[in-house]
Amino acid sequence: MSGENRKGLEKLFESLNAENKRSLQSAISSEDTAEVANNLIDLWSQLVMQPWTNPQGWLEMVNEYQQSQLKLWNDLMNGAVDLQQPKDRRFDSEEWSKLPVFDFIKQSYLLTSTVISKSTDAIPLDGKEKEKLRFYTQYFIDAMSPSNFVNLNPDVIAEAIKTNGQSLTDGLQNLISDLEKGRITMTDESAFTLGENIAVSEGSVVFRNHLFELIQYKPTTETVYKRPLLIVPPCINKFYILDLQPKNSFVKWCVNQGNTVFLISWANTTPECSHIGWDDYVKDGILEAARVVREITSEKKLNAVAWCIGGTILASALAVMQKKRDSSIGSATLLTTLLDFSEPGDLGVFLSKHEVELRADQVKKKGVMSGKDLSLGFNMIRSNDLVWSYVVNNYLKGRTPPPFDLLYWNSDPTNLPATMYNSYVSEMYIKNNLAKPGGFICCGSAVELNKIKTPMYFFSAIDDHIAPWKSTFLGTELVGGRLEFVLGGSGHIAGVINPPEKNKRNYWTDGELGQGSDHWLETAIDHSGSWWTHWHEWLEGQDDRETPARQIETDGNYKEIIPAPGDYVHVRL
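Above: the chain sequence. Below: its structure as tokens.
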């Protein structure tokens, strides 16, 4: 490389490294996460005080760390660095081992990370405060990984030399583009178009109000089950996670099994809708959708399946219906749904009283809870996979991420109205009122889940970090009807979207209920493959009568307004 090119490359390194540091700061410090920094300072002040509260333990830890660093240096000088650290994908490439200096940087970082983690564990805090300290400490450790910095990552340097600096130029452009968008690009978004190669199941929007569009899907069988099926997606995400592409579409699979499928596509709310609350999602959402479905099909009962917060709203609706002696929802399926919020899992780190009150004020002023901010919170829980890996690949290596339908959906969040969001967090997560008989008031009625007699199918995922399965299991102890609990492999998304044709993962059934989650799993039967077929057999057991396939009306009150996937789903932040 010529001297002129080398100087140019050095300037690029300096420029991109400065931008990289700025991006790390912006990822950690936004207006809505400012309280995180204050919390972190308070918690880490206790970490600093540890030498005075436990001097012997601290000295032993420091001594162990110094000896490990000395051994690392001696091994480096002797060409024998091998600390057998746990496998870490951030340092998989050979570049981290070719030059001793980068091997030392890597090993030293891993050693330091271990010491910081041990120091955190040694602080005498109660459970929730300890978990919060661990979370933010790990987030800081992950953020400060040498792999995240241009001049400390040998893969980045090698790529820059190979491309004569073009990778750094491309990375800087990627960074500037993402700063303008206000989010990290996780996939090639130009590869997907709603209604063309994603969310393509054939159907029509047949009803809409201010809160949702109702999609009716075209039948693919000559006969269908008499009971129609209403799908209620979470309102914090777009519905098409359930209709990504034909090969993994839950919607298409349900249609192909002979169901008349209807689906709620929630509106992406604006500040003008800040007054919309939980009651509106029940009354103008689920209850109104159920009314329209019954009117279209001329059936007295329907089956409902809801996911995550959609399931929590559905449970509220069932409680309201019970007060009115309305049993028109003949069965309810709750996918990864919390009804008891006493143990919210990793999300609990964002739910201290001070943080919730501060965020509530910010959300009220804005009129909405920003979908981007919600997405950032979820991504922070798995920061190495959903934040820093993209910082490295997109900004430092200058690469464009490949097309991936799931990540396209993940990058398309929705806003929630301020009133609805704040009551949801306060009533459910903070006060856990939904789990208390009469503790939560919905549509003027005291919610009593134990009086709901609707047959229910609970599905949870064993590695779910959004709705931990042992917490969702608590819901089986709150409702009063006949129920089935099924546990699937994988996490919150992949556990649910598991089409039978792929024959992947596993699921457990038939454990003994009433004696806690651990006992249920000990007594459950393990099956290979998808839970979808098991669920549909259960659904058939509720009512297996059939009728000629119902076509979408060509005239009348519920004819096509617009083809699926509709208008509301196209509104992006």
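The CA atoms of residues 387 and 457 lie 34 Å apart.
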